[in-house]
Write a structure and sequence with these properties.
Distance between the termini: 16 Å
CATH architecture of the largest domain: 6 Propeller
Number of helices: 6
Shape: elongated
Strand content: 35-45%
Mean pLDDT: 92
Radius of gyration: 27 Å
CATH class of the largest domain: Mainly Beta
Number of strands: 40
Largest sheet: 9 strands, antiparallel
Number of domains: 2
Structural class: mainly beta
Length: about 600
């Protein structure tokens, strides 16, 4: 028995968890920059030499789809960390040049770019009704130097558009090159009602078979040796479903199935879909769009069964958002270029980069303070503590804090009860830490204290709080009268769950405050064991306050004790990524906390 215990202890001590790197985000295109009123319609691809190419429409005078619009580009040579000056790929005076769809021909390293053109004075309605001065046409150009220079645009109307066509559109988004099957090497550009394709490396272009009416702004992905899938924005008669439309071709584009209404919620907006490796036996598809019936909540979803189900989902941006473009990079990271704004979806186009591991990870932020060692001082100011796993939500220290030895020789921070705190500003979190009762979320804190044993709320100590005051939308986790309290308020009613045992004993504890949106309960787990649960109140707990660790936003409820780790997840404990059944406290890690639980249970 002792041998078996030693083996299990050894496994617990030596097990490791590969943390996903935090989300990288920056803004290549922002409203008003480079003498453009607004940038729209993002498209993202990696050139053969590794350069990241971010395309967009540069709208000169307004945000309108009509008028003087250039097709512009920014390049990055360092994986999207920095961006080169703006390039104008196509400027036709006062006319409209847009809807970028790039594709790389891997056989010769040429980057093709398909675009659309119409006269700047013509609106969509005028073009469709036949009252315009011109029609919408499809054009292409290419680059043989990874996007540094581009050929003159060529009109492809006679090749890829019906003679009577008035309105047409490519993508927008990305094209693909077929990797397997009878038409290996074929270049494919999604367009309204069909694909545009070339089997001779772009010397000539033709149309695929036509899809049924009902979709536009399509994306295409390869999911088998002869199968293509289109994923389109719905038009009539499907718009009222608020779902993406899907059609399949089992002969690489010659014919297409009837539309299927997918499970993907969509506000009638463009979306993006890619395959991380079309030839792999276990393909991973990624899909991005505003996952709502209105243009909010930019989300990336993962499918492991060619789009039949989407079991993994991660919110990228909670506020207003619209068009997007995904790309799979050579280092196996993922890029996302997406429209967004705090009050309007078209304020900026943001570049995000992340790994598949990050998509699977449920952490919004996770601080373990391991950037400091025992005896060091955490300085007051921004970026005082690092989020190396979530949304890059670094913590601001309101005052200096002392680093001490944590529960297993790692680092913890001391909070002396004076109101010193770590904060994530509401502006930087951009609503990602605002929850409502329908969602699942978890607050995880590793801490110890001997304080807050008596005195009610006046002598309580807040561990994590996004609070405003009484009778306002809030949530918090604090120690009060020796017990742990998890609180939620919808502005009218509130609910509290209190631990069934005291935790101010000076020992290290792991607390999980769990909100189960689908189950209607809020729960407290202490050291891996369910301590108590209660029904929650329906509604929103969102507010404009900061997330504060160590006290309330007002400075009250100052915590006295030590905190070893704090994290917030959008998930339930049983859904968090674990590496073995040794994760006894359901916190996504096999670490000293699990070891402590194991030892304590055996000793008892």
């Amino acid at each position: 028995m002792n041998i078996m215990k030693n083996i299990i202890l050894l496994l617990l001590l030596t097990a490791s968890f590969a943390n996903a790197e935090a989300l990288l985000q920056n803004v290549p295109f922002s409203q008003g920059a480079f003498s453009y009123h607004t940038f729209r319609i993002p498209s993202l691809i990696q050139a053969p030499d590794g350069t990241i190419l971010a395309f967009a429409e540069g709208r000169k005078s307004s945000s309108s789809d009509t008028g003087n619009i250039d097709l512009v580009l920014r390049r990055s040579f360092d994986g999207g960390i920095t961006w080169q000056p703006l390039q104008v790929v196509w400027n036709d005076g006062s006319n409209t040049c847009g809807n970028p769809v790039p594709v790389v021909d891997e056989s010769n390293s040429r980057v093709w770019l398909f675009m659309t053109h119409n006269l700047g004075q013509d609106t969509l309605d005028e073009i469709v009704s036949g009252t315009s001065d011109g029609v919408r046409t499809i054009w292409s150009c290419y680059s043989d130097d990874n996007g540094a220079t581009w050929s003159a645009p060529v009109n492809r109307f006679s090749e890829v558009q019906p003679a009577n066509a008035r309105w047409d559109a490519t993508g927008p988004g990305n094209g693909i090159q077929i990797k397997q099957g009878a038409h290996i090497g074929r270049l494919v550009i999604p367009a309204i009602g069909r694909n545009i394709q070339s089997d001779n490396h772009g010397a000539t272009w033709t149309q695929s078979g036509y899809l049924a009416t009902g979709g536009n702004e399509g994306a295409v992905v390869e999911i088998g040796s002869a199968t293509l899938m289109r994923n389109d924005r719905a038009t009539s008669p499907y718009k009222n479903y608020y779902r993406r439309l899907v059609s399949y071709s089992y002969n690489q584009g010659a014919t297409w199935s009837a539309w299927q209404i997918s499970s993907l919620v969509d506000p009638i907006c463009q979306g993006s879909i890619i395959s991380c490796d079309p030839t792999a036996s276990q393909r991973v598809l990624l899909f991005s769009n505003p996952a709502d019936t209105t243009r909010v909540k930019m989300t990336v979803k993962m499918s492991f069964d060619d789009g039949s189900t989407w079991p993994r989902s991660k919110l990228i941006f909670a506020k207003d958002t619209a068009y997007s473009s995904l790309a799979h990079f050579s280092d196996n990271t993922i890029g996302l270029l997406y429209e967004n704004g705090d009050d309007w979806p078209y304020r900026r186009i943001t570049f995000a980069k992340f790994s598949q591991s990050w998509l699977k990870d449920r952490a919004i932020f996770c601080w373990d303070f391991e950037e400091y060692q025992n005896g060091q001082t955490v300085p007051a100011g921004t970026d005082a503590v690092q989020d190396l796993r979530g949304y890059s939500l670094n913590g601001t220290a309101t005052a200096s804090l002392n680093a001490i030895i944590g529960g297993c020789g790692d680092t913890a921070l001391n909070f002396d009860g004076s109101g010193k705190a770590l904060k994530i500003s509401d502006a930087s979190s951009k609503d990602i830490l605002d929850f409502d009762s329908t969602e699942d979320f978890v607050i995880s804190v590793v801490f110890r204290t001997t304080a807050h044993g008596i005195g009610g709320s006046t002598n309580s100590g807040a561990l994590v709080a996004k609070d405003v005051g009484s009778n306002t939308q809030s949530w918090w986790l604090r120690v009060q009268d020796g017990k742990l309290r998890f609180f939620e308020d919808n502005g009218t009613n509130n609910a509290t769950v209190v631990s069934d045992s005291n935790i101010n004993d000076g020992l290290w504890h792991e607390a999980l405050a769990v909100h189960k949106g689908s189950a209607g309960v809020m729960e407290l787990y202490l050291d891996g064991v369910l301590s108590s649960q209660s029904a929650f109140v329906n509604g929103s707990f969102a507010n404009d306050s900061d997330v504060v660790i160590g006290c309330f936003n007002s400075g009250s409820s100052a915590f006295s004790g030590d905190i070893d780790k704090v994290a917030v997840y959008r998930a339930l404990p049983q859904n968090m990524l674990t590496i073995s059944k040794g994760d006894l406290n359901c916190d996504s890690f096999v670490d000293f906390l699990d070891l402590n639980i194991l030892i304590e249970n055996w000793l008892n």
